Amino acid sequence: MWIKRAFFQDIPASEITERSVYVSRRSFMRAAAAAAAGALVVEPAEAAQPAPHGRKLESVRPSALSTTEKPNSWEQITTYNNYWEFGKEKGDASVYARPFTFSSWTITVSGECAKPGRYPLDDVLKGQALEERIYRHRCVEGWSMVIPWVGFPLAHFLERCEPTSKARFVEFTTLVDRAQMPGTRLPILPWPYVEALRMDEALHPLTLLAVGLYGEVLPNQNGTPIRLVVPWKYGFKSIKAIVGIRFVERQPHTTWNDANPPLYGFWANVNPAIYPQQTERRIGEFWERKTLLFNGYADQVASLYSGMDLNKNY
Fold first, then answer.
1. CA 172 to CA 117: how far, in whole Å?
2. Considering the entire predicted model, what is its pTM?
3. What percent of the chain has pLDDT above 70?
4. What is the predicted pLDDT for the residue at 24?
5. Sorting pLDDT into bands at 50, 70 and 90, what band is 310?
6. What span, in angstroms and rounded, lies between the C-alpha atoms of 45 and 89?
7. Mapping DSSP to helix (H, G, I), strand (E, B) and coil, where does residue 201 land?
8. Do residues 268 and 237 touch, judged by C-beta distance below 8 A?
9. How much of the chain is helix, strand and coil, in % rounded to 5?
10. Taking the domains of the chain in order of start, what are their residue ranges?
11. How far apart are CA 236 and CA 92, in angstroms?
C-alpha cells in the first residue's frame, strides 16, 4: 500500500541543505562521473548561477491578465530551468547557456497560410505593444513558479500570417545549434524540439510570445530571444528559442508526446485528476499546495474544451 507523505513532513528546517550547496555538489558529482566514463560532454564543476541582468525593455505596460501572486525571484527563475538543449539537470541551462550568442534571428513561417516566409525578429516585434504578464506555471515534475514575463499575444503575429481555413493546429520548432547547445549532441531527445497548439488555443488572449523577463530581455537560459508561454498547460508546451512556425491541418507529432505519451499528453492541460500530482511545490517554499485545474485559469480557458473528455484528452 502506497502512503503519501507531506513534503518535508518530518525534516526540521535547520537540516535542509541550502540549494546553492546542493547544486554545487551535484555539479561536482556529475563532472566526476562524466570524466570517469569518458562522456561526450565533460561537465565543469560549476554551480548554477543567476543570469546577468540584460537590457531594459522600453514602454512595457502592466497587464490586467496578471495574477496577483508574488513572483519568484530573478535568481530562482534563472537557475531552475527545464531546457534540455543545454542539459537534463535543472541547473544546467544557467551554466551552459551563458556563452550562447547569435547575430540575427529569423522565424520561418510555413504551411496553411497566405503569408509564409522568413520573418526577422525585428519584423515579428514591429508594432507590438509589450506587456508584463505575471503568470503561474506548473511542471509535470511537481514544481511551480510565478514568472513576470514581458511579451505580446501570439495571436497578433499569427493573424499577420493569415492562416487559411485548413489551419487547425500551429506547430512550433526550436533552434538546434550543436556547437552551442551541448544537450543536442546527445541522444536525449529527437532534435529539434517540436510543440504544437490547436488554433483556438494559439489565438487565446492568454497565449503569449515572450521576449522578456522582469522588464529585461530574456536571459539565455529562459529561451532568448523569443519563446512561447501557455500558462494553463504544463511547462513542456511553452517552447523556447522559436525558429519555426507551421500551420497544419492535422494534429502534428510533438517531441515529448512521442517520447512518453502516458506522461506527456498532447493537450498537457494542468489537470490533477489525470496526473497523480494533486499538489505542487512552489520553488522557494517548503510546503506543498493544491494544484488547480487549468493551473487556476479555468475561468478563462475551460470553454475551449467544452465537450471533451479531459480524462482521455490530456
1. 15
2. 0.85
3. 85
4. 38
5. confident
6. 13
7. helix
8. yes
9. 25, 25, 50
10. 61-72+102-305
11. 17
